[in-house]
């Protein structure tokens, strides 16, 4: 067994384990960190397959930008884990349906790509001529913007929806959040800037005049002075 084959199995095993930890970890931050580990292992596998551009793109784009954004969003959302555990059973039917659809789609793709067709795939980078001299970035870009332009546009819309959803989740109103209300501040009048608050305890003392500091109530002070003189 060659050394590259051993590395492939190691990276594939780490990728599988980290992917399972993403969906089984109870801590959202831990799930995001395991997803970062999965991206690194996928990039290493692409490096073994001599797809350096895709590997570097995966590390720079997903690990360096998207996952950092995910971590900030997860930490700013202040997710209550007790509520998630309590409502877990409510989402089991929908999660089962979505999981079954994903499994069926993956099986159809694998069957169509490896089982049903026997047509050899032409590799433009191994043959002679001008196609072999072109860099892989040019070939990838040509395939994306010609054969898969519709899928590329749909992926852009999905990313746009994800950005809007992240902004909507972080902009929700919390019980401890404090925000300025500019419209109310502009409309405020001078007499509304100072508010006089009545305190019932002090009002009752002033009305009766029997407080300890009242001018008419000197019995306590006199008694204290008499006791002191007699002593």
Automatic annotation (TrEMBL):
Residues 207-231 are annotated as: Disordered. This is NADH-quinone oxidoreductase subunit J. NDH-1 shuttles electrons from NADH, via FMN and iron-sulfur (Fe-S) centers, to quinones in the respiratory chain. Couples the redox reaction to proton translocation (for every two electrons transferred, four hydrogen ions are translocated across the cytoplasmic membrane), and thus conserves the redox energy in a proton gradient. It catalyses: a quinone + NADH + 5 H(+)(in) = a quinol + NAD(+) + 4 H(+)(out). It comes from Trinickia symbiotica. Keywords: Cell membrane, Membrane, NAD, Quinone, Transmembrane, Transmembrane helix. It is an enzyme of class 7 (translocase). It is found in: Cell membrane. GO terms for molecular function: NADH dehydrogenase (ubiquinone) activity; quinone binding. GO terms for cellular component: plasma membrane. Pfam families: Oxidored_q3. The chain crosses the membrane at residues 6-24, 31-49, 55-79, 91-111, 148-171. Its EC number is 7.1.1.-. Belongs to the complex I subunit 6 family. It is a multi-pass membrane protein.
